[in-house]
Amino acid sequence: QKDASSDGTKIVLLVKSLGNGFFEAVADGGKEAAGELDGVESIYMGPSAATAEGQIEIIETLIAQRVDGIAISANDPDALIPVAKKAMKAGIRVISFDSNISEGGREVALSPSDSELIGSQQVRLIAELCDYKGQIAILSATAQATNQNEWISYMYEAFKAPEYKDMEIVEVVYGDDAADKSYREAVGLFKKYPDLAGIISPTTVGVLATAKAIEDEGLKGKVQITGLGLPSEMQHYIENGTCGQMALWNPVDLGYSSIYILNAMIKGEVEGNPGDVISAGRMGTITIGEGGNSIMGEPFVFNKDNIAEYASIF
Amino acid sequence: MKKTILELKDIAKYFPGIKALDNVDFTIRTGEVHALIGENGAGKSTLVKIMTGVYQPTKGKILMEGSEVHFGTAHDAQAAGVAAIHQEASMFTELTVTENIFMGHHLRKKGGTLDWKAMRQHTQELLDRLELDINPDTLIKNLGTAQRHMVEIAKALSVDAQLVIMDEPTSALSLHEVEELYKIIRQLKDEGKAIVFISHKFDEIFEICDYFTVFRDGQYIGEGEVATSSVDEIVKMMVGRSLGHMFPKKEAAIGEAVLDVKGLSLPGFFKNVSFTLHKGEILGFFGLVGAGRSEVMRTIFGIDKKSEGTIVLNGHEIHISSPRLAMQRGIAYVPEDRQEQGAILEMSLSHNITLPQIDKISPFGVLNKKTEKTITEEFGNKMEIKAANWKVNANTLSGGNQQKVVLAKWLATDPDILILDEPTKGIDVATKAAVHEFVSEMAAAGLAVILVSSELPEVLGMADRIVVMHEGHVSKVLNRDEANSDNVILAATGHEEGM
Amino acid sequence: MKKSIEKILQNRELNLVGLIIILLILVTIRSPRFLELRNVERIVNDTAILIMVAAGQFLVILTGGIDLSVGSTIAFSGMAASMLNEAYPAMPVYLILLIGVLVGTALGAFNGSCVAFGKIPPIITTLGTMSIFRGFTFVLSKGQWVTAHEMTSAYTMIPRGRLFGIPNLTTWAIFIFIIMYYFVKYTRHGREIYAIGGNKTAAHFVGVSEKKVNFMVFTISGALCGLAGVMWTARYAAAVNETATGFELQTVAACVLGGVSIAGGSGTITGVLLGALFLGIINNALPVVNLSPFYQMAIQGFIVLAAIVANVLMEQRNEKKLLNRRRQ
Amino acid sequence: MSDKLKHVSQSRLINETSFKERLIETVTKWEFILIVLFAGVVIFFSNASPYFLNYFNLMNTTFNFMEKAIMALPMIFVIMCGDIDISVASILALSSFAMGHASAAGAGTPEIILIGLCVGMVCGIFNGLLITGLKIPAIAVTLGSQSLFRGISQAILGDQAYTQYPESFAYFGQGYVGDTLIPFELVLFLILAAVMGFILHKTSYGRKLYAVGNSATAARFSGVPVARIRFTNMVLNGLFAGIAAVLLTSRIGSTRPNIANGWDMEAITLVVLGGVSISGGKGNIFGVIIAIFLLGYLKFGMGLLNISARSMIIITGFLLIAAVLIPEMLGRFKAKRKLMKQQA
Ligand SMILES: Nc1ncnc2c1ncn2[C@@H]1O[C@H](COP(=O)(O)OP(=O)(O)OP(=O)(O)O)[C@@H](O)[C@H]1O
Ligand SMILES: Nc1ncnc2c1ncn2[C@@H]1O[C@H](COP(=O)(O)OP(=O)(O)OP(=O)(O)O)[C@@H](O)[C@H]1O
Ligand SMILES: [Mg+2]
Ligand SMILES: [Mg+2]
């Protein structure tokens, strides 16, 4: 039988669910980093449906096979804590990325960006699109999607700023990350708020379905849409002007950085304490902040001019 | 004049574990009513299924008008001109009468579209021919047992058949319908068709059949002209010995009243039914189709809920809301429909037989396999059930043997009041005699028995008193000595009222 | 008189129409513009896919089975058609539509073979293929989506185009409904479905082949899912791996609401149509009535339950009436 | 064969007592196939991964499927009677919600558990009343209550979560029995399985379940309280969903309305894979128990080999079909063989 440790360093990127372009791009980033590092293997895993229970099941098997590190994009910030603790007790280094586990359930939380930053940026994007006035609605994923919820709460905060005094958030609705439900909710918003100026949809399925609904209902130009979307998926709507601009961080970089951080922790180069500085290949250095949080930077804004370029990447 | 239409040669049919038929020869001629006779489990229905393409024989060949045929499905047989009324209920209860009659051979217009108008009209003609007052659009689930059976007969007639096979067609019919059926059979015969008629009732065989073939244990025993044979001869061929007289009613001391029913009503089914049942008495219930006898019994047994009336048991008024309560009060009910209500077909014989008293024989709810075995063997053997062993499922038994299982199951509960609803339906002569003897013995031992039957000789022969029902109410109550077939039938048809 | 009694018994559909009217009144009170013609058209169009797939589910349930794989079949055939469109933009879209239907048909035939020839109970077969087809959707797509940019406009116009002012998607649903109505009422094969669901032994006695019927209903259900798959991906201009997850329960709900007996043997396509519309109205009403979105799921569950209970109670009352009228 | 059965002429029966016959009888049984598959899984993964045959791992991985396994137990009864319950996962969610609510209000561990079980039972009673009282098919009722139960917890909890549970509460879903490495969940499951198996196979209640499943009408005519039994089954189902709620909530230490989403189908899958006939009346507890471990360890093994979830669902799908197809094919072969022998 093979000795496990001789296999080199095994790092798992555990994502919310399979079959999502965003996470496929994360996996590409992971592979890229693993290729640069010596003896590191990046394994891409995820449940077939986005549930915390499914992720827990996978983590249990990862504990059993004693992988060296796990980077998790969590479906639930709390439900994963017990199993993550178990993993850490078994000597596995655990970090979360993209959608984080609450403190205690990971050593480092790599946020793609600061939640406050994301929230205020989304508000700015929609405000620019509808000239700083009008009713705004938010179309989120599921009611239980924690990172979305956090961003939304910061959006409310951001709207308190004086430059947005002519704007208001009229409602938050949930499309459950299903195309048909999101579409229906978007149409419902048009019905309910005939004067609706714009929709923020901080989820890739939602922003896509909303753009389609706007196009179908002939509301292009009347109702604006922005959100967080994958360039490759939104290219059509950005190029035809349905969606003026939207933002996203680079999933490739996210996967890339996760592997670098975990590798440094496994090799004992850093402990993952606040203040530690990790050199992460082409990303430069990443500093671990308070509570283990680490932030990559402001989300990148996509518009007509740059969309084609990024659509080919992710 | 008479020519051979269907010939079975050296037919065998094996089921895993049992030879249902072995080395059977059977020849059917046109213009003849051919009786197929045999004990329960002799293989009659199996043969019918082979002739209609439902089963394929394990061995042997089928010749139709001299040339060999192969019936792969029921369709093939129908196309070749074989129609059948099967012993098992084979109705689509959620569909209309018209559709039930034409399922499998719908009439179609030129383009292939179904011609509902024509089918409906045809159905109406068939129903008229059978003198049935049923709307072709009625759903089968809204028909009574007998009416359903008549629809089955209509269904067999709807096919333009050379050979019509009837597997116990009269078991659920009452006198009037049986007369209608005879008329039809004679008509068919005159038209030069061949008829195979299966029945356990000798009066029917002697009334309508010309020729007979006897089977025993899946094997051919003999054949002959009905006219030149006697019942005794045939019975001897069937069972290998002669039988005593048919209705061995024992004299019993009739005791005090155990059950007193007053003004019992169930809207839509029966109204103001009153009668008294005594210890040691066999109380016969006679009536025509839909007279509501079964419903009265079901109500007493707690299956249907009465709307009015009182039931007094041993001097105390009781309210029975479920069969469980009825059983706790010592009432047992052998239902008329053994396939649906009586036996649990996919359960073993032993589990079937012990089911009604499963709580009684399970101390603290834990099954006692030994008691179970004892009870099964005692009553199973008493009823002379024919099966490979007690563990086989009830659905592998022949129809008559299934009925015996149902009887055994209720007798095993040791009731005070035993309600039998058509208990000898589909049972062969030998067993029937055994059942009668058994019932009369139990009555003599103090059991109170209600015997619901559509067989007049059975009621006349067995009952101490006869309650005659007509259209949901009691039309007459007759004592044993004053009852005869005339006044009972008059009362049953509503021509003679009063008590 | 007899006739009118029978009518009372068979007016399940009428009951459902009544419930739909009550539902519409309740919604309109809260959101007066709900009944605008344009919105009604939108609701019908939005329900069209459910109607198609529920029609196939209806046949399966009629035989006493159930098809839990419809969602996955939709996802797979939708993905296949979209990828084809992406790879060969020049291919005529109606050819793609046909291929999508054929893919669905093939998957349905696989279900049908398992049930008919393998004698595997429908619920187990389709519980299995629900996973299998979904898994193969992932494999086929390699986890990627096909989105608006990769689709030709001809493809996304399949459901959106209009004929006589009616959206194509609605036209397709009406077309399927009519065909299905004719099929179950006026063809031999259609009636044989009722026979198998009603009484297998009896069906055997009259030469109706259970194998053939089972194979047929699953294949038809698959074909309709194939059609729905193309419609779905074209309508939302996105073929994703999760397409139509959980849709199987919607289709079963449409049948159950429409009065189709889950044990098989009885039910009408009109009932299914009404059941689907009932669900479609709820789906479209919930976003527009002013209620917290968190209440949606509970309200949906409550309304569905209430409708089922009301339906059953009305039917039981009718049956009692019928009994009381007989033999006064 | 009982020699008391003197009424069947022996010439018609075929002797089946030979060892070979009995062997064939055994190996074509469903449970046998499941055991073979299980052995296959164990052997294959033991060779494929060094981590599979590891006592700690084998024990520890049961955490992943014990709650579903517990939900599957009363589901056997429900399905046995020809009903189905697709609302159990929603009952679990509502029950977990109630526990979180209680905990937030300061309840201690015993009260929390009691509330969880009670809510589960109340949901079961609700389903049971609609099914038996109004005579609505179980699938129709639970189709509605599935949304209703989960919907209630979502309506109140919204986008929030309960994350505060007493420390002692964690034992049920995370603890081990004594100093052993045996999870408490596993032990609880085995006890419950023994109890339910005993009820099913050794008591009159179990016998009545089979009777109702095979023919509700005939069972009623035999004095079996059909409605009461079906009602009891639904209540048991609710109660066990409550137990599963306690375990799962304790294991993940938090509650959200979307907890255990889709687990109804997983519980049903275990039952039907275990050989319980979906139309009622057939099956036994051993098949289901084997199916539970077969599926659990198959998933574990595939996880160890880092097989992607997409391949996993394909493989489990095929397994489900194969587990039914193989005994069916063997059964046909067996019947054919028997007939050949009879003819010879
Ligand atoms: N499907 C089956 N599987 C196994 N055995 C069967 C099956 N059908 C019939 N048998 C057996 O074949 C034998 C003949 O049965 P059949 O139904 O033909 O009898 P029958 O003569 O019609 O009896 P009855 O007068 O009681 O209707 C019986 O012993 C029965 O147990
Ligand atoms: N025209 C009808 N429409 C609907 N249902 C009917 C009609 N006629 C009879 N029935 C049903 O049939 C029942 C009576 O049928 P059934 O034949 O069981 O009566 P019975 O007196 O017990 O006769 P038997 O036991 O000899 O068959 C009625 O109570 C009713 O339920
Ligand atoms: Mg017979
Ligand atoms: Mg009767």
Here the CATH topology of the largest domain in chain B equals: Rossmann fold
Distance between the termini of chain B: 54 Å
Q: Which ligands appear in the coordinates?
A: adenosine-5'-triphosphate, magnesium ion
Largest sheet of chain B: 6 strands, mixed
Query: What spatial order of strands do you see in the largest sheet of chain B?
Result: 6-7-8-3-9-10
Binned, the helix content of chain C reads over 70%
Radius of gyration of chain C: 20 Å
CATH superfamily of the largest domain in chain B, by name, is P-loop containing nucleotide triphosphate hydrolases
Number of strands of chain B: 20
Summing up helix and strand content along with how strands pair, one would put the structural category of chain B as alpha/beta
Quote the average pLDDT of chain B: 87
Work out the helix count of chain B.
17
State the total count of DSSP E strands of chain C: 4
Main β-sheet of chain C, in a few words?
2 strands, antiparallel
Number of distinct helices of chain C: 14
Helix coverage percent of chain B: 25-40%
In terms of quaternary structure, the protein is heterotetramer
| Total tally of structural domains of chain C | 1
Q: Could you tell me the strand content of chain C as a percent range?
A: under 5%
Domains of chain B, number: 2
CA gyration radius of chain B, whole angstroms: 23 Å
Describe, in short, the structure shown.
The complex is a heterotetramer of chains A (314), B (499), C (328) and D (344). In chain C, 74% of the residues lie in helices and 2% in strands.
Overview features:
heterotetramer, A: alpha/beta, 6-stranded parallel sheet, 10 helices, B: 499 residues, alpha/beta, Rossmann fold, 2 domains, 6-stranded mixed sheet, 17 helices, globular, binds adenosine-5'-triphosphate, binds magnesium ion
Protein model, in words:
The complex is a heterotetramer of chains A (314), B (499), C (328) and D (344). Chain A has 314 residues and is an alpha/beta fold. Helices cover 39% and strands 21% of the residues of chain A. Chain A has helices at 21-36, 52-64, 81-89, 115-129, 146-159, 179-192, 204-216, 231-239, 251-266, 307-311, and strands spanning 9-14, 40-45, 69-72, 93-97, 108-111, 134-140, 167-174, 196-201, 224-227, 245-248, 277-279, 285-287, 293-295, 300-303. In chain A, α1 (21-36) packs across α9 (251-266) and α2 packs parallel to α3. Chain A is elongated and about 60 Å long. The model of chain A is unreliable at 1-6 (pLDDT under 50). Chain B has 499 residues and is an alpha/beta fold. Helix content of chain B is 33%, strand content 26%. In chain B, the strands form four sheets. In chain B, strands 6-7-8-3-9-10 form a six-stranded mixed β-sheet, with helices on both faces. The longest helix of chain B has 16 residues, at 175-190. The relative contact order of chain B is 0.12. By secondary structure, chain C is mainly α. Chain C has one domain. In chain C, the strands form two sheets. In chain C, strands 1-4 form a two-stranded antiparallel sheet. The longest helix of chain C is centred in the C-terminal third of the chain and has 30 residues, at 296-325. The mean pLDDT of chain C is 89. Chain D is mostly helical and 344 residues long. Chain D has one domain: Orthogonal Bundle (ABC transporter involved in vitamin B12 uptake, BtuC). Helix content of chain D is 71%, strand content 0%. Chain D is globular. The two termini of chain D are 22 Å apart. At the C-D interface, α6, α12 and α14 of C face α7, α13 and α15 of D. Bound molecules: adenosine-5'-triphosphate (2 copies) and magnesium ion (2 copies). One magnesium ion (MG) is lined by residues 145, 293-294, 336, 421 of chain B. The site of one magnesium ion has 6 residues of chain B, from α1.
